[in-house]
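// run 5 | inverse folding | seed 20
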């Protein structure tokens, strides 16, 4: 089976091995740019979330599709542990993407755009943090969640792409310098892994084996 690579309005046929090479080279080229554009913001997010946890507050996380899976992944790193050699207490993080009864009830009755905002309204308290992951930067349910979070005095963080609409609406935005969804998601995972490690180091380094 041939695959197509689109560049400047043209299509070039590639075989599967060429596709694999192209995608790996693309992310290899993106990573230094991601480091340059986002390393400071990742440190800021780690500090912000560390302060949230130190204050006895919690983190809410949401996103759609692959970003929903990333929301759950990030929450798992915080609740369970990122580093297996570190003895630590659980950190309170909730993915707003997992309760199918809430998701389907609200979406069926009121529409999908408010499905995360409603949960922020229910669970969010002043001093908590909301993290939204949106590769487009314009997911309406993420934007509405941020609006409610800010109204309830939550800290707000976005994992998104360069020039995403949501970046200007949050306290800190990690803006991957790409428009390729798969590579944006790959960088998001690297980002929240780094942030998880920084949080653990700041809060629990003395418990490392």
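// decoded
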């Amino acid at each position: 089976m041939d695959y197509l690579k689109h560049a400047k309005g043209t299509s070039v046929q590639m075989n599967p091995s060429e596709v694999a090479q192209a995608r790996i080279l693309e992310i290899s080229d993106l990573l230094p740019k991601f480091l340059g554009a986002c390393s400071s913001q990742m440190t800021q997010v780690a500090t912000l979330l560390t302060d949230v946890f130190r204050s006895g507050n919690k983190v809410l996380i949401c996103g759609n599709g692959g970003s929903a899976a990333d929301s759950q992944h990030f929450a798992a790193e915080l609740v369970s542990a990122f580093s297996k050699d570190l003895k630590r207490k659980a950190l309170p993080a909730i993915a707003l993407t997992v309760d199918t009864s809430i998701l389907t009830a609200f979406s069926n009755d009121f529409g999908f755009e408010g499905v995360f905002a409603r949960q922020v309204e229910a669970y969010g308290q002043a001093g908590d943090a909301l993290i939204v992951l949106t590769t487009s930067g314009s997911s309406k349910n993420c934007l509405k969640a941020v609006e409610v979070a800010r109204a309830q005095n939550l800290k707000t963080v976005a994992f998104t792409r360069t020039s995403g609409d949501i970046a200007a609406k949050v306290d800190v935005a990690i803006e991957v310098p790409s428009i390729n969804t798969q590579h944006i998601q790959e960088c998001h995972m690297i980002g929240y892994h780094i942030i998880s490690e920084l949080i653990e180091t700041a809060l629990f380094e003395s418990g490392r084996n």
